[in-house]
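#struct-pred
JK: can someone run the complex with pyridoxal-5'-phosphate? inputs below
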Amino acid sequence: MPDYSQVIDFGNGQPSLSLLPVKALRTATDDFMARGDATLLQYGADQGDASFREVLAQFLGRRYASPVDASHLMVTASASQALDLICTRLTRPGDTIFVEEPTYFLARHVFRDHGLHVVGIPIDDDGIRIDALRDALARHRPTLLYTIPSFPNPTGTTMSPARREQLLAVSREHDLLIVADEVDLLLDFGTAPLPPQGAHTHAARVSTR
Ligand SMILES: Cc1ncc(COP(=O)(O)O)c(C=O)c1O
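RT: done, structure tokens with the ligand placed:
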């Protein structure tokens, strides 16, 4: 029988058990329970616990090297749930949306479940091809563009800064909502991450998960 404890499984994007902060979580849970405030075990605020969002905003602000406003954050059970919520709130069955081609296969399942018509926009070494995007915009009126700008699954081709600027310009021109899936944004190997697309909400319609 092979010793699977030594196998590094790249099939799922999840950390090694040895990296999980079990002790810190236990201490936090004990502190939390010691407060004896049972309201903390109820539904709570729709957007997520306010003090948690404050701490998260500070953490993200440090890592992104640009400030993050806690009121812009909403806590979800996963990136997939956030995408599902976005579709529920912003799309209707039969709507057209754009994705990079290829894109994350499970996002396609979410879009399919919402009855969306998915149009793929090809990429090159700099990310989504702007000429192809403009061609597609001449033929369709998409509700949104779903993009994975940094370390995308499955290609790993991070969108270049210049391409990001061009994408924002197209978004402004066509009032195109950009939904940026940035689940792996902070998983770099020592290089400073590019700013999240959410840093551009003032410049275009950008929603980041
Ligand atoms: C681009 C992308 N988005 C979302 C997910 C899934 O995130 P979650 O498990 O938080 O739903 C993955 C997982 O591989 C992913 O690669």
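RT: quick notes.
The mean pLDDT is 90.
The beta strands are 96-101, 117-124, 127-128, 144-147, 177-180, 206-208.
JK: thanks, will look after standup
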